[in-house]
């Protein structure tokens, strides 16, 4: 248990027992600091939802051999990237047997399981987990330093030397602290998902996997004309099927999210995968999609923000990650806080080790490298023109038009480019942009 | 067997999710502001279908089966129409553990 001093103060309050908060609390409790880990749900993870894949490599540092105990559904041994039009599908399908063995790569997992487990690790280190309690605001001293939070419990003010806000994508604490500018809906998507039950053997057969092997299918197109993407992930005996939709585009048309998912599930390439399943849960969550360009300031006097609260999700098309960025940023927030407390300086300056760590690790290095990716992936050309161009080119490549002889592929591509309405200079520009981003 | 997913009712869909509803609304909507709104993006975008236009030109809002996602207030173009907070601790949506 956290020791509170006579003023009822702990060293650190971590708001939000998601992956960022649990990691921060673990680091600090392990170093002997008193930590309260606040969670507004009845248990950690009860409010949390994502598509379904976690890449826990960073946990090697926090919880070595985590794979022996982590509550995963399946190890992702097969990754497919699919381009859909109304009647076509082009899939690039990669499998690796090594991803099904230690130290593994990615896994499907339910967030209520994963987050509950990770927060339990923080508790085991001595952090005090307080559930069913919503942090409603920041407490400040006369000089404006954050010195705790208000909560919705009676007499619920909690005092601490440092507050680490891991309160998710809507982070009211980061906004209250003035770390964000104006919220722009264009920086956000909403992820909407159905969890669909099917017997394990049926999933194994349909997805050509065995035992704990699993599949991650990311889809371009298949969102009924709304900029975004689709996904199908295999859990042990359910499928996660859903879409991610750019908010302003979703708001400016007539199809509702569940109708867009229904269309995806009725697509000829997807329908045979999900047929006969029963919806076990329907869920939604907003995603900070725009990466580096939307990131807030990370540090205030007595305050750090991590995870989705700091817009850490990486939505870079072929890389869709978030939980790993949350866990890492939480770890670094915990380390920097410990450093500041050891120096006796919890001011923004004393907490500067946080941004230094973010800058020197994959957290911000990936975001800097891929800063152009979110807008490119969600651009109108990539979303609405290229899928037709690509699938029609491939269809003509594989179609046998005897007695006509086979056409040259470049000629077909060029014809299909024109038919899709793609200007050569735009294609060239996007290609260069793509190479600069991903190359 | 051919299943048409479009035939699944929204009530059945949202009925699959657990909500521990608090008696006090965590989101309030100023219906008089909504009456003048021409875009009403919340109606199409809210994944929980909590905003329903009424025949007399207003918007009916229900907070109960809310995912607490934030889509509505981010898309709302009318200053002050939606007041959005989290529900009281321990209430609202509860995603399932295995």
Features:
heterodimer; A: alpha+beta; nine-stranded mixed sheet; 15 helices; 34% helix; B: 98 residues; alpha+beta; two-stranded antiparallel sheet; 4 helices; 6 strands; 18% strand
> What is the structural class of chain A?
alpha+beta
Largest interface (CB < 8 Å): A-B, 61 and 42 residues
Regions with little confidence, pLDDT below 50 for 5+ residues of chain B:
none
Shape of chain A: globular
Concise description?
The complex is a heterodimer of chains A (439) and B (98). Chain A has 439 residues and is an alpha+beta fold.
Q: Care to describe what's here?
A:
- The complex is a heterodimer of chains A (439) and B (98).
- Chain A contains 15 helices and 19 strands.
- Chain A has helices at 19-30, 59-62, 111-124, 172-176, 200-207, 247-251, 257-266, 271-274, 323-343, 353-360, 362-369, 373-377, 380-398, 409-419, 424-438; strands spanning 9-15, 35-38, 53-54, 74-84, 89-95, 106-108, 128-130, 135-140, 146-151, 158-165, 188-197, 213-220, 228-234, 238-246, 278-288, 299-300, 303-305, 314-316, 319-321.
- In chain A, helix 1 (19-30) packs parallel to helix 3, helix 9 (323-343) runs antiparallel to helix 10 (353-360) and helix 13 packs across helix 14 (409-419).
- Chain A is globular.
- The relative contact order of chain A is 0.15.
- Residues 1-6 of chain A have low confidence and may be disordered.
- Chain B is built from four helices and six strands, in the order αββααββαββ.
- Chain B has helices at 10-14, 31-35, 41-45, 71-75; strands at residues 18-20, 27-29, 51-53, 59-61, 82-84, 92-94.
- In chain B, the strands form three sheets. A two-stranded antiparallel sheet of chain B has the order 1-6.
- At the A-B interface, helix 3, strand 11, helix 6, helix 7 and strand 15 of A face helix 1, helix 3, helix 4 and strand 6 of B.
């Amino acid at each position: 248990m956290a020791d509170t001093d006579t003023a009822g103060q702990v060293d650190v309050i971590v708001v939000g027992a998601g992956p960022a908060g649990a990691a921060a609390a673990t680091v600090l409790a392990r170093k002997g600091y008193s930590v309260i880990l606040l969670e507004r749900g009845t248990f950690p993870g009860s409010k949390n939802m994502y598509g379904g894949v976690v890449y826990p490599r960073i946990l090697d540092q926090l919880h070595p051999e985590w794979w022996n105990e982590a509550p995963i559904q399946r190890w992702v041994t097969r990754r497919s990237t699919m381009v859909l039009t109304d009647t076509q599908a082009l899939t690039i399908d990669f499998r690796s047997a090594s991803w099904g063995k230690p130290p593994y790569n990615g896994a499907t997992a339910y967030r209520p399981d994963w987050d509950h487990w990770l927060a339990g690790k923080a508790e085991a280190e001595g952090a005090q987990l307080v559930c069913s309690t919503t942090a409603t605001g920041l407490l400040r001293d006369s000089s404006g330093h954050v010195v705790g939070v208000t909560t919705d419990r009676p007499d619920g003010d909690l005092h601490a030397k440092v507050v680490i806000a891991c309160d998710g994508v809507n982070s009211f604490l980061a906004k209250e602290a003035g770390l964000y500018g104006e919220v722009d809906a264009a920086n956000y998507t909403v992820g909407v998902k159905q969890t669909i039950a099917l017997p394990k053997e049926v999933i194994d057969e349909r997805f050509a996997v065995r035992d704990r092997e699993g599949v991650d299918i990311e889809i371009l197109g298949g969102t009924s004309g709304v900029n975004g993407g689709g996904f199908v992930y295999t859990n042990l005996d359910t499928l996660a099927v859903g879409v991610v939709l750019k908010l302003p585009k979703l708001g400016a048309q007539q199809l509702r999210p569940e109708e867009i998912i229904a269309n995806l599930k009725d697509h000829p390439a997807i329908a045979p995968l999900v047929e006969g399943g029963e919806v076990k849960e329907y869920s939604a969550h907003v995603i900070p999609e725009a990466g580096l360009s939307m990131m807030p300031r990370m540090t205030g006097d007595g305050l750090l923000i991590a995870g989705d609260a700091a817009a850490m999700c990486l939505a870079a098309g072929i890389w869709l990650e978030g939980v790993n960025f949350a866990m890492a940023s939480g770890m670094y927030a915990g380390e920097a806080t410990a450093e500041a407390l050891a120096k006796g300086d919890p001011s923004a300056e004393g907490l500067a080790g946080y941004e230094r760590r973010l800058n020197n690790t994959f957290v911000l290095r990936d975001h800097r490298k891929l800063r152009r990716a979110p807008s490119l992936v969600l651009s109108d050309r990539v979303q609405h023109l290229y899928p037709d161009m690509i699938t029609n080119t491939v269809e003509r490549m594989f179609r046998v038009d005897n007695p006509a002889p086979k056409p040259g592929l470049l000629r077909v591509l060029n014809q299909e480019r024109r038919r899709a309405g793609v200007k050569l200079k735009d294609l060239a520009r996007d290609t260069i942009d793509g190479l600069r981003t991903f190359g | 067997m051919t299943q048409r997913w479009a035939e699944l009712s929204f009530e059945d869909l949202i009925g699959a999710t657990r909500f521990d509803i608090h008696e006090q609304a965590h989101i309030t909507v100023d219906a008089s502001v909504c009456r003048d709104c021409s875009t009403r993006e919340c109606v199409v975008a809210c994944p929980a279908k909590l905003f329903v236009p009424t025949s007399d030109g207003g918007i009916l809002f229900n907070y109960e089966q809310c995912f607490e996602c934030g889509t509505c207030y981010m898309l709302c173009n009318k200053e002050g129409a939606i007041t959005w907070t989290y529900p009281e601790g321990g209430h609202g949506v509860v995603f399932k553990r295995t």
